[in-house]
Amino acid sequence: MRWSGWGDPGAAHGLPGGVKLLLAAVLGRIPAARPAPDLAEVTVTTPPLDDADVAALASVVGAAHVDVGREARMLHAGGKSTPDLLRRRQAEQVAPGVVVLPGSEDEVAAVLAVAGERSLAVVPFGGGTAVTGGLEPDAGAHRGVVSLDLRRLAGLVTLDTTAQEATLWAGTTAPAAESALGEQGFELGHFPQSFEFATLGGFAAMRSSGQSSAGYGRFDAMVTGLRVVTPTGLLDLGRAPGSAAGPDLVRWFLGSEGAFGVITQVRVRVHPTPEVRLFDAWTFGDFVAGADALRRVAQLGTGPTVLRLSDEDETAVSLAQVGNLGKALARGCSAVVLHEGPDGLAQARREATTRVLREAGGRPAAEKLAVSWDHGRFKAPYLRDALLDNGVFCETLETATTWSNLHALKTAVTGALADGLAKEGAKSRVLCHVSHVYPTGASLYFTVIAGLGVDPLVPWERVKHRVNDAITAAGATISHHHGVGADHAPWLEQEIGEVGLRMLRAVKAELDPAGIMNPGALLGPTTPPRPAGQGG
Ligand SMILES: Cc1cc2nc3c(=O)[nH]c(=O)nc-3n(C[C@H](O)[C@H](O)[C@H](O)COP(=O)(O)OP(=O)(O)OC[C@H]3O[C@@H](n4cnc5c(N)ncnc54)[C@H](O)[C@@H]3O)c2cc1C
Question: Of 191, 199, 206, 263, which is best to mutate to test ligand 1, by the most ligand atoms within 8 angstroms of its C-beta?
């Protein structure tokens, strides 16, 4: 992973010609970009932890697994949102005081104990792909920050092929999990766009949702058990496929964002590797017609694995990206549908979905559009780097609501983005797709591109604030799958209420009385540390 951008440096690329033409037409003249500096040019304003702290941590994990080097600290300096990447282009930056790599659950517990004794904040670090500020090196009331990188806690622990349930270490990356399961004929089926780097612990901590969610559900729906090390003890949760033994404590840690403790193992349901994968592409006259068609499929439950609908603007940009500028200028919306599983069952599901989509006014399109979406689906983050390098601001955000409220929400968010960016003097284009569907509603995923000037960070923060207000006022969720982090924390109370916030604070106070666990995330930087046992 690049410290100042996304992914494998070898996979980085420039802007495709079609995109350049479209950008010039939409955004006009773009000022020259501020290039990402070399690491050596950056001043890291937060010092490394002192020798005594480092020695205490090294006594737990071994000196080879404690790193105060500049590169390691900058690789753990934050997540991969566009504001994170813009901060990585600045001359002065903050970073954690040390990176620590525990090799066992006992070492995790011992690191938390040392951190508590020495008043050090601990930020759990999985794949580093967070996009809502949950990896900010925020020390809170403490002396410094330990980035707790879980990469050594990786691999398959057990696979029960009868129950179709697997336990994996939390630091296992998604590709490593699929590879280990695939060797035994199974698959997890969680494919977020951050698939290449994100970890199972990160998915659980953030309540992630992948592109196959129509078929296999969100990540939190896949989780059947967790092991979590907290500053006050270990929890081993989830012992039966269904239980009425009080409130479900597993759910308390899904979305806990490292603020309650460290997830060390994740138990998930898995399924046999699909025998066939059947791709279809569809077009609809407009977004309203397309969304109605997706609603009918989700409510009837015909069983696609992937079901996504791009709005008119996103459809045009996707076509321009593959060089089809002529078609890109025509109006209409495209949908991608995938059915998979055992051959006969997948075919039967595909036929049922096809009937519904046709009845809803859909027209079948070339299958290659869906196949090319599948081939290119992890490449968009590389394109964002190319856009930033060319001075084009590009960011994504997401939310969810009921089908009844979907179009009002889309209008509200698109309006807040367009108006906010116009107030900042920027030309922009807002793209949107339905990314995840449920019988009762769907998630909307927005991509914004704008000519926001040479220093877009502060103007974008103002725009994002307006958008978050618009989402909340529209009655939608502040996040369907990117989580709360530090960025959405000020909007959490409006979503869960004052009592809900007190419940979260009470649990944190019980599990993390000194407030060392990820002080900036979930509950926000204002959360005061509380003595154990004193909620409220
Ligand atoms: C280009 C891009 C595309 C993305 N696409 C999607 C998408 O399609 N769907 C989606 O849901 N998300 C997406 N994301 C967001 C991100 O990938 C998810 O939030 C993911 O779950 C983070 O996993 P991670 O392992 O990288 O966690 P990190 O980024 O390392 O950490 C995320 C948060 O979880 C905490 N944490 C991590 N591991 C643990 C642990 N073991 N125990 C306790 N706390 C922990 C961290 O402290 C932090 O607060 C995308 C991000 C990017 C940059």
Answer: 206
Q: Are 70 and 87 in contact (CB under 8 A)?
A: no
With a cut of 50, say whether residue 28 has pLDDT above it: yes
Nearest CA to ligand 1 atom 50: 194
pLDDT tens-digit map of 95-105: 999 999 999 99
pLDDT at 490 over 60: yes
**Ligand 1 pocket: which of 193, 377, 433 to mutate (most atoms <8 Å of CB)?**
193
Q: How far apart are CA 14 and CA 20, in angstroms?
A: 10
Residues 283 and 194 in one domain: no
**In-domain check, residue 119:** no
pLDDT at residue 322 in the model? 62
Ligand 1 center–CA 206 separation, angstroms = 6
Structural domain containing residue 236: 156-272
C-alpha distances (whole Å) from 125 to each of 77, 137, 142, 186, 389 are 10, 11, 18, 27, 27
412, 351: one domain: no
